[in-house]
């Protein structure tokens, strides 16, 4: 047989040996096929299952609502932002980030606002900036130490800090030891160009001691009695206020009073008790202002737009001029006109005015946003904790920083009397910067003490993450790819 014929025979035999798919015989009319046989019949004849529209599966409605925009619209963006804000470490990062940004921006503005003042007193242009930078470095170390300290150690430091602060505030009033700056006898000379204002540390001392006192009384269920709520908190606060007012520093006394009211509010003081203490403080403040011509002149400068012919309200009016000339984005760093002798204290009490002149409305709103974020994060820490000491201390620190920022900025804007208090973390002054940075470290420590934040920080350690990955990866057999 020729080769071509043998090849054709083999091909026909190979085709005959291949099994063909089973086909279902046509069923009689009215007799359904079994499910398996019907399926095999459809597969054999190549019939396709009819396509169903997307979204008509389980519980589907047959059509899906189209998404608006790439990210799902404003509501979806809002939900994402809300979930991000509710994460355990949000308060920790907001406190750390906002405080560092305020401090760094404050260093820049201190250098810009103080260079003319330094040259005017025959010092280098970086004189005030160098001192502020040194204070910021020391304050950063204090903030790191406070952030790493456990809560029990912070409670243990409450009484020592209070006693040392009271001793230094008494020492200020001793002739020959205390110094008078701008009419206030509230300074201690440390040698060289360095001075210390103990009343700034009195704010931190009152917060730590008051928080520890109220926490211990709450554990014993004594805060339901008004005498335990007021004594000895209010007498000790009034003692600190008296030592401060002996030196004539009304601004620091106002901040200390705000801290006292914040602690009483957090402790759940009744409205009548709270109103009584507030009324007594208001009457005392009225008498102190009425009996001082300097304080009365400051009160009369609220809302002025130009100075008096005799030179009164000069600082308040030129603060408004600086803000008005800044415009939307300012005249640029270093280009301020008011710091050339027109505006007194451009690097301390009125540094916010120089910020508005050089950075404009955008710069001032950025500073306000950073303070708002810091205050909101502090409220969140105080509201989410179960530890009464953490709640009182975090609330006290938040009250301190927020009230002082409001009083300083309100005075620059002409909405409040000029109280002579610096802008926290921003204005020049090492005595104000050191306790404030320690207080920020205190809030960072409280934010880290939250159980959810502890777990999140532990998962971010390299060793824990590596061990977790090792547990999740299964061992593969030899030769498996």
Which features would summarize this protein structure in a list?
481 residues; mainly alpha; three-stranded antiparallel sheet; 19 helices; 64% helix; disordered C terminus
Describe this structure in words.
- With 481 residues, the chain is mainly alpha-helical.
- Helices cover 64% and strands 3% of the residues.
- Strand 2 and strand 3 form a beta hairpin.
- The longest helix is centred in the C-terminal third of the chain and has 34 residues.
- The two termini are 53 Å apart.
- The C terminus is likely disordered.
Low-confidence stretches: 35-49, 52-69, 468-481
Largest sheet: 3 strands, antiparallel
Q: How are the strands of the largest sheet arranged? A: 1-2-3
Number of distinct beta strands: 3
Determine the number of helices (DSSP H or I, runs of at least 4 residues): 19
Mean pLDDT: 83
Shape: globular
Percent of residues in beta strands: under 5%
Summarize the structure.
64% of the residues lie in helices and 3% in strands. With 481 residues, it is mainly alpha-helical. Helix 4 (90-120) packs antiparallel against helix 17 (430-448), helix 8 runs antiparallel to helix 16 and helix 11 (250-266) packs antiparallel against helix 16 (388-412).
């Amino acid at each position: 047989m020729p080769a071509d014929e043998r090849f054709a025979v083999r091909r026909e035999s190979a085709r005959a040996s291949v099994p063909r798919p089973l086909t279902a015989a046509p069923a009689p009319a009215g007799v359904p096929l079994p499910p398996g046989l019907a399926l095999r019949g459809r597969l054999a004849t190549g019939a396709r299952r009819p396509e169903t529209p997307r979204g008509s599966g389980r519980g589907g409605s047959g059509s899906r609502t189209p998404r608006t925009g790439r990210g799902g619209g404003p509501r979806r963006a809002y939900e994402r932002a809300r979930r991000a804000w509710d994460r355990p470490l949000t308060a920790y990062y907001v406190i750390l980030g906002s405080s560092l940004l305020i401090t760094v921006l404050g260093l820049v503005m201190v250098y810009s606002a103080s260079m003319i003042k330094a040259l005017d007193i025959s010092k280098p242009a970086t004189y005030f900036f160098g001192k502020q930078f040194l204070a910021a470095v020391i304050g950063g170390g204090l903030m790191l130490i406070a952030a790493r300290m456990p809560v029990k150690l912070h409670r243990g430091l409450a009484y020592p800090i209070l006693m040392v602060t009271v001793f230094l505030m008494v020492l200020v009033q001793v002739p020959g030891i205390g110094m008078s700056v701008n009419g206030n006898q509230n300074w201690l000379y440390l040698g060289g160009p360095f001075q210390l204002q103990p009343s700034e540390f009195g704010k931190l001392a009152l917060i730590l001691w008051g928080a520890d006192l109220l926490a211990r009384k709450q554990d014993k269920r004594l805060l339901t009695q008004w005498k335990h709520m007021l004594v000895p908190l209010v007498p000790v606060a009034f003692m600190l206020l008296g030592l401060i007012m002996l030196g004539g520093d009304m601004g620091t006394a106002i901040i200390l009073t705000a801290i006292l009211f914040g602690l009483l509010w957090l402790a759940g003081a009744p409205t009548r008790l709270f109103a009584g203490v507030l009324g007594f403080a208001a009457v005392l403040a009225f008498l102190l202002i009425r009996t001082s011509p300097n304080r009365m002149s400051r009160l009369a400068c609220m809302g002025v737009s130009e100075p008096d012919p005799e030179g009164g309200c000069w600082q308040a009016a030129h603060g408004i001029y600086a803000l008005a000339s800044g415009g939307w984005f300012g005249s640029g760093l270093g280009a301020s006109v008011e710091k050339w002798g027109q505006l007194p204290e451009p690097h301390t009490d009125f540094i916010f005015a120089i910020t508005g002149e050089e950075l404009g409305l955008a710069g001032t709103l950025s500073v306000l946003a950073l303070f708002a974020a810091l205050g909101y994060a502090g409220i969140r820490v105080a509201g989410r904790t179960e530890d009464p000491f953490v709640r009182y201390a975090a609330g006290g620190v938040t009250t301190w920083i927020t009230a002082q920022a409001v009083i300083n900025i309100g005075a620059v804007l002409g909405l409040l009397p000029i109280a002579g208090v610096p802008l926290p973390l921003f204005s020049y002054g090492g005595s104000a910067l050191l306790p404030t940075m320690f207080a920020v470290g205190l809030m960072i420590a409280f934010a880290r003490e939250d159980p959810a934040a502890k777990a999140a920080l532990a998962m971010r350690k390299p060793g824990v993450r590596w061990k977790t990955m090792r547990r999740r990866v299964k061992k593969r057999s030899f030769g498996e790819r």
